[in-house]
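Lab notebook, bench 4. Still working through the backlog of constructs that have no structural model yet. Next entry is a single chain of 148 residues. Request: give me the structure tokens for it.
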Amino acid sequence: MDARTETVIIPHPNELNRIAELQRQILRDVQAHTAGGEVWLPLFPPYVRGLAENAVVSACTITQARRDGDRIVLDAEAATPTGTAHLTLPIAQRLAIATHDTPHLPASDALPLRLPVFRIARVAFTQTETRTEWTVLESKWVKTKKTN
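Model written out:
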């Protein structure tokens, strides 16, 4: 088994529901516009990844959906004391190779999506032969201030 730890942003359950709906919308649209043989698997958990260890984040906004190789990700921007961190939230993985190489990603009224409440968490990921398991080791809730 392969184990590693990572610092991530875990959206509040209210935003997780909105992200799950956006994920379903994107995958429905991608499937409707892809050639035969292409299969997209939704990815979980919906953790925003790419934070430095011991990161301090005061705000996080999901900005856009895009293709990243064999994955579809949501880009995010996190406000930190040293500037803006550019992060990703993987939402789908392509399983089968097909002739159509670039999925159509819909424009969404759901983006940008501000995360008003989230957790910064240290998570241990353990890879087995069939799946990835995760355990939240420690976390801290963050509530952002409203901006106009």
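Notes after review: Strands lie at 2-11, 40-42, 59-68, 71-80, 83-94, 113-115, 117-127, 132-143. The helical segments are 13-32. Flag for follow-up if needed.
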